[in-house]
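So, who can interpret the following?
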Amino acid sequence: MISRALTIAGSDSSGGAGIQADLKTFTVFRVYGMSAVTALTAQNTRGVSGIFPVSPEFVRQQIDAVATDIGLDAAKTGMLANRAIIAAVADAVRVHKISRLVVDPVMIAQSGAALLEADARAALRDEIIPLAEVVTPNTPEAAALLDMTVESVAEMRDAARRLVGIGARAALVKGGHLCGDEAVDVLYDGRDLHELRAPRVPTRHTHGTGCMLSAAITARLACGDALVAAVSTAKRFIGTAIAGGLALGAGNGPANPLAWLDEESRELISKQEELHHRGTERTEKSTKK
């Protein structure tokens, strides 16, 4: 049976982030994607011009509809918008026993627009994060959730431990907002700290990277990967998506999840060529004998 993943998140009318980015990422990883829309946004590469939250009751109805029929192997949350939606989602996660839950604590868009109401931050921390197999904040989100500064790798390690301390089974603190030649992410799995490093790609076309990274982790968890393996694959995927970023619109264009398929194709061709060369060498040796 094909693996199944659900995204509980907002819609991005420009297609670069939110459920659109999540569903593209699920498809790239050959996972059947489903969605529960929490909010509609009017946005493009220059910013967010409007937000229309969905009623909590209808968010819950969407989750119930897919969970009780198609079923799911993993799920992720993105933009949850307000306290009432957070409460509805938390209850649905508990009722449907969704254990492989990735929580992307979306608070602020790349353009600076607020995507979570101010009074909902505590609810996100207290009701959703304790349900997470892994929570994936960037450094500003980790700082806001924990009321601390997160401006170095050492502080990222501390933040990851604290997030596990408030209930998440694991925490991935993303360092894309920091400076340096490398993009460093810190994963704490409840026992060990792991640092994932990759060369920083000089580009402004990074819209949707947080959504895509958490969606990639969700997809790999849905396929049965252990957490560290899922995060490692997702880290490589997002580097490829950023390197293949699309110069669309007048602002910050989106990262490109489809670039992963190009990389997979190159790897497959390379492996086929290697096998061909090995076969040719064996044939030549046999001929000489």
Observations:
- DSSP finds nine helices and nine strands in the chain.
